[in-house]
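Narrative summary of target 7.
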Amino acid sequence: MALVLNGSGTIQSDDITLSGNANVTGAFAVTGDMGIAAADLPTGSILQVVQGSNTTQLITTSTSYVDTGLSASITPSSTSSKILVIVSHPTCEKRNDDAYNSINFRLLREATVISSDPIAYGIGQTAPTVMSLMFSVSFNYLDSPSTTSAITYKTQIHNSSGTGQIKVQRSDAPSTITLIEVAG
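Modeled conformation, tokenized:
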């Protein structure tokens, strides 16, 4: 059995089943929403990707956590979704004004710390000599926010020991944060 549509026409139906040998020829239009709802996708499907970046340099000597200025926001489509957070700070510098000091990064969802001190870098030496260490920091975290409200993720940094100056971000190498919603 064959279904043949010749000429101009519009096919509209709540339920169309074509079986056997089906041919549609000529000009035609299909109307309506042809999208697939996020709830109909299998677990592990990528639902959306959002990226934030920052090129504004932060310079601090704080021993308390301060925002790096890197953040991004996402609105999950389901409470069962997971958010894969990928962070890259490609240009970091730690100036050492005393022996032995280190810095720490952490990740927050809104005001909640979800990954405390995932990365720590340190400088150790036998005598207090001024020097600088250049490095990059990258890490990721799989979060389960259990919400369909907009949420913001951000990074923070601090001197965990020592008094040296910390620098992150430069205009020629932006820091980035990528948020990937994964169907749960």
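The chain has a mean pLDDT of 79.
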